[in-house]
């Protein structure tokens, strides 16, 4: 049997999910549990010691969320995803991993208004400073980078202006500066644009927009590009893709 590379539509429906091995149920159940049972104390010790992969506690990981996280990571071509409560929560979580008080973030001036407020006001309270750059003038990003810069943040298609940002050029500036490029891919969606293919290191999305098409779903995912590399390496090993 030949291994086929799943297309976007297949990934959108199936990535990250499997039929339930006990019941055969096709749809992913909602696991309404905070805790998980361990086989014995050794199993618990290896889970907590991060020697075995598995579920420990829902705040750390939940099998229902895991399907969404893996699916979005697969669609974006990332390594892994993390679902949190909203787009702005995703932005805080990402920055928390990268920034210390006194650090700087270079951000495109053309962003969703709520993000501009979050960066100017909420982030200021953490001692994180934003330096604004003009997405129509790439040189402003280069000039905005300083030794205190810890990340560059842009939107692939800015909301609401529809400005298309040159991800590749800004990705190169981030790479030269040794900092991650974070791309908010909310408006474009990975169907139109996969920022990781153009040099983004982290992608954030507000899932309440085009993807959910209903108000209740507020899930945000950040992904990294290693999954794509791993998937490619696996497919190359299986001789599905020519090696480069
Ligand atoms: C491009 C973009 N990014 C981030 C957000 C923030 O997402 P949320 O409202 O889910 O926090 C929005 C919300 O409209 C948005 O349009």
Describe the structure.
With 244 residues, this protein is an alpha/beta fold. The chain has a single domain (66-238), classed as Aspartate Aminotransferase, domain 2 (3-Layer(aba) Sandwich), CATH 3.40.640.10. The chain is 36% helix and 10% strand. The two termini are 24 Å apart. Mean pLDDT is 89; it is low at 213-218 and 238-244. The protein binds pyridoxal-5'-phosphate. The site of pyridoxal-5'-phosphate (PLP) has 15 residues, from α4 and α5.
Which terms summarize this structure?
about 35% helix, binds pyridoxal-5'-phosphate, Aspartate Aminotransferase, domain 2, alpha/beta, single chain
Short characterization:
The chain is α/β, with parallel strands linked by helices.
What sort of overall outline do the alpha carbons produce when their principal axes are compared?
A: globular
As residue ranges, the low-confidence spans are 213-218, 238-244
The tally of domains stands at 1
Question: What is the CATH superfamily?
Answer: Type I PLP-dependent aspartate aminotransferase-like (Major domain)
What's the layout of helices and strands?
Elements: H1 8-14, H2 41-48, H3 63-76, H4 87-98, E1 104-108, H5 113-125, E2 129-133, H6 139-144, E3 149-155, H7 167-177, E4 181-184, H8 189-192, E5 202-204, H9 226-237
Parallel strand pairs: 1-2, 1-3, 3-4, 4-5
Helix pairs in contact: 1-3
Pyridoxal-5'-phosphate is lined by residues 86-88, 112, 114-115, 155, 159, 184, 186-187, 206, 208-209, 218.
């Amino acid at each position: 049997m030949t291994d086929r590379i799943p297309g976007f539509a297949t990934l959108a429906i199936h990535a990250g999910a499997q039929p339930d091995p006990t019941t055969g149920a096709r749809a992913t159940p909602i696991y309404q549990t905070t805790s998980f049972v361990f086989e014995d104390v050794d199993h618990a010790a290896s889970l907590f010691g991060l020697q075995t992969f598995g579920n420990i506690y829902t705040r750390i990981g939940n099998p229902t969320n895991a399907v969404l996280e893996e699916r979005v990571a697969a669609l974006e071509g990332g390594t892994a995803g993390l679902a949190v409560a909203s787009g702005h929560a995703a932005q805080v979580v990402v920055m928390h991993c990268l920034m210390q008080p006194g650090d700087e973030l270079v951000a495109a001036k053309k962003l969703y208004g709520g993000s501009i407020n979050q960066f100017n006001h909420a982030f200021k309270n953490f001692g994180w400073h934003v330096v604004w750059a003009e997405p129509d003038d790439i040189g402003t990003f280069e000039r905005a980078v300083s030794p205190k810069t810890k990340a560059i943040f842009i939107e692939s298609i800015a909301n609401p202006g529809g400005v298309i940002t040159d991800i590749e050029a800004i990705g190169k500036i981030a790479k030269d500066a040794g900092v991650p490029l974070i791309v908010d891919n909310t408006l474009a969606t990975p169907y139109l644009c996969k920022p990781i293919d153009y040099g983004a290191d982290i992608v954030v999305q507000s899932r309440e927009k085009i993807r959910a098409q209903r108000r209740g779903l507020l899930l945000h995912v950040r992904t990294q590009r290693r999954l794509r590399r791993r998937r490619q390496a696996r497919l190359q090993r299986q001789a599905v893709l020519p090696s480069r």
